[in-house]
Structures are given as structure tokens and as C-alpha cells.
Amino acid sequence: MKQTKFFIGIIFFIIVLNACAKKQYEIKSVNGYLVEMNNAYDDRDGAKMSSIIQPYKIKLDARMNTIVGEAAKSLTKAGEQSVIANFTADAMYEYATDIWGPIDFAIINNGGIRTTINQGPVTIGNLYEIYAFENTLVLIDLTGKAVKELFASLALKKMEGFSKSIKLVIKDKAIESFTIGGSALDEEAIYKVATVDYLAEGNDGMAALTLSTGYKDSNIVLRDAMIEYIKNLTLENKLIDANADERLDYKE
Length: 252
Fold this sequence. Notes:
It contains seven helices and eleven strands. By secondary structure, it is an alpha+beta fold. The protein has one domain: 5'-Nucleotidase, C-terminal domain (5'-nucleotidase,  domain 2), CATH 3.90.780. A five-stranded mixed beta sheet has the order 5-2-9-4-10. The chain has a four-stranded mixed beta sheet with strand order 8-7-6-11, covered by helices on one side. A hairpin with a 2-residue loop joins strand 6 and strand 7. The longest helix is centred in the first third of the chain and has 20 residues. It starts with a helix and ends with a strand.
């Protein structure tokens, strides 16, 4: 019975195709023009559309305007150390440790942080602006040799944000000293590194991260992890704060 229905369906499909094939269409001309979307349209009646959008806008505004923390000072990307990257990497380190247990360090690119955390109240909307991408927090296993390759390449071009578990001294665009968790880098060891999936794919000059020997994806967007982390700071009566410190030292 099922087979009979199948053949009937095929026959019907062929008949439809044949019927359509008899109709011939030809494009006679193509015209186009640009319409500038400016304030000339602001006075047009959009009451019906507004009535549809407004309930969602109210809910969205309420969420985006929710204050989740307070910054002791403005955290920027300026200078030899990006203070906001320091804060982000340390947060990633703690958050990843809560998920997977002890890790060695966290790394984030400055380009993945879009703007400044301004002094004062910080809202969910602010964090959507700062962490605008849908990158997820991941954990990779990386040999010491690959870790050395990663930081050597960054020292030549630009330095990204990494957690305070690392102490790095750069001289003449080369690594002079490097410790992780207070110990010298062991090129044969395996290090657990928290980062985002975008960087783990080797993007933004971090090709060494593709040499990983293990990979775990939390499926948690970095922005959501940062929102939760900052909420927990607030519950502990702590402010959002970070400084340039001894994790990175450029020698003349």
C-alpha cells in the first residue's frame, strides 16, 4: 500500500512539472533605485507596528537596563596592559575552574572586547555591548611547547589578555622569562587553557591554539559567563576592578 502511494506521488509530481514546463516566462527589463532611510520617515504612522513591538521592547529594556554590578573605575584597553582584558581573563579563569576544576591559565583577545567598562553601575546592556560576540567558553589541552609558541608569536606583534597565573617578561620582542602558576614553563607538560572557541580555531593570530590535544566546550557564551561572574561579585559586595600588574613586564 505504501509503495502504491509512492508511485502515485511520483506520477502526480511529473504531471505538475510537465504542466509548469508549458509556461514560458522571460524577463523584459530590470529597474532599481536607492531609498535612503532617514528622518523623513519618522512621521509616518507606525502605530500598528509599534503596538506589536512595544510589549517586547518593554521586556527587553527592563532586562537590558538591569544593573548587575558596579565598576570601581573605568576599565579600558589602553596602555601596555589592557586592564579590561586582565579583568576578563581572570574572570574566565575562575569561571572555567568552577566548571572543569583546576586549570593553568586563561587567554582572551583584545579584539573580542568591544568597548570600555565605565566607572559606576554596569547593566546587562553594557555587557552586551562589551562582549558582543557569540563566542563560547572552551577548555583546551596545550603542550608547553605550543604555549611557548603562542606567546612568542604574540610578543612579536601584540600582547593579548591573559590571567594573572602567568608572569611574562618581554625584552626586544622576545620572551625573557615565563612562569605559569609560579613554575617555569615546561615544554613537555600539558597545560589546561581556558579561552573562547573563536581563538581555539586559530583566529586573530593564535594559530598555536589549534595544536591542542584536548577540547571541551562549555556551550556557555562568554558574555553570559561574564554576566553571571559579575552578579556573583555583587553578591559578595565586591566591585568590578582590575589593574596593570606584574603578569606582564616589558623591559627596555
